[in-house]
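Final report, results section. Input specification for complex C-07:
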Amino acid sequence: MRIAALGFHHETNTFQSVKTDYDAFKNTEFLIGDQIAERHASAHSTFAGYFRGAEKYKFDLVPLLFCFTGPTGTITKDAFDRITNEMIGLLKNNGPWDGVLLAQHGAAVSEEYPDMDGEVARMIREVIGNDIPMVMTLDLHSNISQKQVNNTDAIVVYRTNPHLDPVERALDACEILVKTISGEVNPTQYLVQIPMIINIVKQPTDFGTMKEIIDDVENIIENPEVLSASCGQCFPYADVEHMGVSFLVVTDNDIIKAEKFAKGLAKRTWEKRAELQNDSPSMEDSINRVINSTSNDKPIVIMDVGDNVGGGGTADSTHLLEVAIKNKLEGKKSLLMSFFDPVSVQEAINKGVGGRVNLNIGAKTDKLHGEPIEINGYVRAITDGKFEEPKSIHGGWRFFDYGPSVAIETDQGYTLVIHTERGLGNMSRQMYYFMGIFPEQYKLIICKGTVSPRAAYEPIAEYIIMANSPGVTTADMNSFGYIHRRKPLYPFEIDTEF
Ligand SMILES: [Zn+2]
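Structure output:
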């Protein structure tokens, strides 16, 4: 049994001004053939699950191409054409196939295709024909479309956010695919799209209403005729027509049951729609809560929701740093945070370790993320920015490269790590340890993310605050000028009916 595996993985924030070109993928992760095993076999990613699936279900896995880059703006037509040409060329030249595994995100938008994931599935379907089964895996905060459903035999979606289950879901995908090839099952899927969004601050799955929804999904999976059930939480920063919450149920050849289960999940979630919207505190309230905190044992973690690098943030917002300085958060180890700012890194490198610096930090990408902030201090460390995360963290990534980086100790007692690649936000604590910095020792840690840093910081945090900060990923959805989203959509149109 020969199974091809491919992935063109991107979460597109269409409000981000930086377009995503071919070089963005090439410079982050662009793997062909055996390179995929080198990078992923020991990781905790979807492809890691495919490798384990090949052993468990005894098939020949032929990894063809996997590319990925951090969440930035719309993918250029040039990047889409070149990458899909390579994918399709590899697929045609290395066949015949018994099946295909496709690792997509489910929130990719290219200049030509608002539903890029659906188009990639369609292009592959055109090559392999209708008789060769294909199973696609998606990220939890995906915008699932009917086109994606029509061009795949089954879709399996992560169920944890932070994403700690890519391996398990990839194993589910392998099982469904192998059983389909051998004729044991005939997957039949039904999609229900609800006219609502789930705000990013309500997307974590380990507590609250979102946990109830995932529990509900997992109950449905217990039914013997169900092969898979999924929730697509939506990625609200993609201004496309199919953006919104959805439920997808895959049964063994029973479309009536698939429809019934999917509609039941949709209806129960719709009833909870008001609980799934933004209620995050202001930046002032968030910082003041830290200043007034009497607990000294563990750090308080503030999520900079407006500069969520995992959702397209620029990694250089200064809004929260400005409030911290203005409200006089001070003292040794009072604040730890990171910034993307190549100009400041170069200035610090020029001074050398121990040198005094006067820097204007951050806010150099656009006008949405504050003004550069003047800080004085000294250079504590200079590194190459390359580190490794051995544990299973969000998405299962293992190797990180933030480019040449420096740590600055400011006169207020802050430690600021500044890097030259935009990076993946703060999803691994190793970005501090490898520079000799211990996050556990700080009063406040500001993370540039909403959900992705949780797996790394929850174990050391007193508690986590999700601050309603401005920026390209703000939780304040009314600040975006949508053009393409469907209408009505709750909570934008508060009287939306379903
Ligand atoms: Zn995700």
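The mean pLDDT is 96. The chain has 14 helices and 19 strands. This concludes the modelling results for the funded period.
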